[in-house]
Amino acid sequence: MQQFEGRTAVVIGAGSGGIGTGIAEACARAAMNVVVADIDTDGAARVAEALNAAGGSAIAVKVDATDRESLAALCGRSLDAFGSVDLVSNNVGVVLSAPLTEATEAQWQWVLELNVMSVVRSVDTFLPALRAAGGDTHIAFTSSMAGLMRPDLPGMPLGLYAATKHALIGYGESLRYELEAEGIGVTVLCPGPVATNLIVTSARHRPDRFGGGYDVDDEMPPGQDPHDVGDVLLRAIKGERFLALTHPELGRFVERRYRSFAADFAFASEGGPDGS
């Protein structure tokens, strides 16, 4: 996607002041129309008001990314307001610290629902609109460095989170291949440590069918200002990159992981036909 000015970005999960808000801000700075979508109506309204006050063109829309009808309504509202959709960025996600050996099925369902299926639903919903825009459109969604490497955070077991973020890498890579001929790009944002309220918003907005909201005392570790992340994503989109990376210095940990895979392949190649 080479041209941003005058085009329309739908940013899902943009009302919390985190990564989605940073992406909405970057899109506005690039002179795009911005649909600020979030389950938090007040948060979405605040972000849209700030963008408009700075000279942008934005509307706020409530959306529940776990509900196809809600996403369809978001798509319709976006088209009614701006005539087309050119970029869809889904940044909905939750984090849950729980050992894999103790995680309940309900916890698995919640994390998979928000981190993976919300992305699948948003792609399914907006793909016709992106196709109708006539090419040079883009899909972006947020995974994590935890989707590329083992998340070693002391005292914070993130196996559920990492499993879903790995799934998004595989989904995004296959989707990119499938849509390439149609002129629809796919970029997966893999942020490293970013200063967000993800733990709090994850707990606050947990749907009733997964146990409802709850209070937490944990805090995310310090990290990069989320308002800078949007520029990282737009640069990657314009550069037609698959991965948008906020912390390129962490690449050495990803390389270490894949070197361990290479060692497994080398070990397998040394065995005989019977595996001995």
TrEMBL record:
UniProt xrefs under InterPro entries: NAD(P)-bd_dom_sf (IPR036291), Sc_DH/Rdtase_CS (IPR020904), SDR_fam (IPR002347)
Keyword Oxidoreductase carried by entry: yes
An example Gene Ontology molecular-function term: oxidoreductase activity
UniProt keyword list: NADP, Oxidoreductase
PANTHER family in alphabetical order: DEHYDROGENASE_REDUCTASE SDR FAMILY PROTEIN 7-LIKE (PTHR43391:SF14), RETINOL DEHYDROGENASE-RELATED (PTHR43391)
Entry's family note: Belongs to the short-chain dehydrogenases/reductases (SDR) family.
Protein name listed in UniProt: Unannotated protein
